Amino acid sequence: MFCPKCGSEFEEGYTRCAECDTDLVEALPTDEEEYEELVTVFEGDAEAAAVVRGKLESAGITAWIEGEATRSVFPNLSPVAVQVRAEDAEAACQALADVEALEEGAEPFAGEDPEEGA
């Protein structure tokens, strides 16, 4: 059994990761898996994006902060985007609907409707 969030391996019988409190899976995804379309659901500063990702993950929606891995090495002040799988976009927008602006000027992404072009 593996944690899909941190990659830790567990013996049979365990169902949740002790570090991430995430449900375990039988196998981790491989690089050969099909490409997943991601949709931007929020744009703002890095701190606000982290809060939004936490809100989404608490609602059971996996979210990524675009470029997060390189930001610690090459920080910049440009807005960052929080992305979710295309099939989770509607649920993500609903989960974020009750979130007030996290800071002045940071609002939920108002781009294309995720249902358009689907």
Relative helix content: 10-25%
Head-to-tail CA distance between termini = 34 Å
Largest sheet geometry: 4 strands, antiparallel
Tell me the overall shape.
Answer: elongated
Describe it:
The protein is of the alpha+beta class and 118 residues long. It has two domains: 1-28, no CATH class; 38-108. Helix content is 21%, strand content 15%. The chain is built from three helices and four strands, in the order βαβαβαβ. It has helices at residues 46-58, 68-71, 89-96, and strands spanning 38-44, 63-65, 80-85, 107-108. It has a four-stranded antiparallel sheet with strand order 2-3-1-4, with helices on one face. The termini are far apart.
Describe the protein's topology.
Blueprint: E1 38-44, H1 46-58, E2 63-65, H2 68-71, E3 80-85, H3 89-96, E4 107-108
Antiparallel strand pairs: 1-3, 1-4, 2-3
Task: Name a few traits of the molecule.
4 strands, 2 domains, 3 helices, 15% strand, elongated, single chain, alpha+beta, 118 residues, four-stranded antiparallel beta sheet
